[in-house]
Amino acid sequence: MKFNINDKVTFLYESGGGVIIKIEGNKYFVEDETGFDRPFYENELAIIHGTDYKLSEIENIDLTEDNVITTQKHQVLKEKQVGSIKAIDFWEIDLHIEEIVETHRGFSNFEILTKQLREFRHFFKKAKEKRITKLVVIHGVGEGVLKEEIRSYLSKQIEAEFYDSDFREYGKGATTIELHYNYK
Q1: Contact at 8 Å (CB) between 179 and 132?
Q2: Within a domain: residue 80?
Q3: What number is the average pLDDT over the span 127-145?
Q4: Strands, E assignment, 45-99
Q5: Rounded CA gap, 163 and 120, in Å?
Q6: Which residue from 41, 60, 126, 156 has the highest number of Cβ atoms inside 10 Å of its Cβ?
Q7: Rounded to an integer, what distance in angstroms lies between the CA atom of residue 11 and that of residue 2?
Q8: Cβ distance 29 to 23 under 8 Å?
Q9: What is the predicted pLDDT for the residue at 65?
Q10: Does the residue 1 lie in any domain?
Q11: Hey, is 67 helix, strand or coil?
Q12: How many separate domains does the chain show?
């Protein structure tokens, strides 16, 4: 997945996130929550779709059913007075190998699949930690091995419901995951 300037992102290998402010070659410079500019590679970031946010405050949002509304496209939170957070729509990750590593020359199919699944599991775990309710995983069509492995993993997750993503937006190569949390 190629990112653009002003895209909101989360860090995959550490807590936090920010906004992409500059792109130089294969490095993305992200202004984090503290105002510092930090360089990251593409495979270290995941896009966040939504409006204003501060990732450090996401855990404090009340996501009870009364605070969730459904739109034609996806679920969003009703406006809340939690810092500058207004809405969180969903997180998205593209698992095409070209989006994960700079070059996959010399990788076997097994190594590629293993890398893609490792990225997916890490992304899924981070989304659960942040209590994100909707994810879109772009896995491509191909022979369907990655899709089946992802869905096999998801079928063992009690809180996860998954289905084909909107064909008009993603074609046949994406899965939408809705995560349900116990809000007691």
Answers
A1: yes
A2: yes
A3: 90
A4: 45-50, 68-70, 75-77, 88-94
A5: 16
A6: 126
A7: 15
A8: yes
A9: 36
A10: no
A11: helix
A12: 1
Mean pLDDT of 134-143: 91
Which is it for the CA torsion 83, 49, 111, 149, positive or negative?
Answer: positive
Structure tokens given for 53: 């946010």
For residues 9 and 23, is the Cβ–Cβ distance under 8 A?
A: no
DSSP state of 73: S
CA–CA gap between residue 9 and residue 47 (Å, rounded): 4
Q: Let me know if residue 2 belongs to a domain.
A: no
Assess if residue 99 is contained within a domain: yes
Query: Strands (DSSP E) along 42-156, which ranges?
Result: 45-50, 68-70, 75-77, 88-94, 134-138
**Owner of token pair 């095409």:** 96
pTM score of the predicted model: 0.56
Q: Residue 61, SS3?
A: coil
Distance CA 174, CA 94 (A): 9
State the pLDDT confidence band at 123, using cuts at 50, 70 and 90.
very high
Burial class (CB within 10 angstroms; exposed 0-12, middle 13-18, buried 19+) of 18: buried
Q: Which domain holds residue 65?
A: 8-179
Token pair recorded at residue 154: 């998801």
Instruction: Decide if pLDDT at 88 tops 90.
Output: no
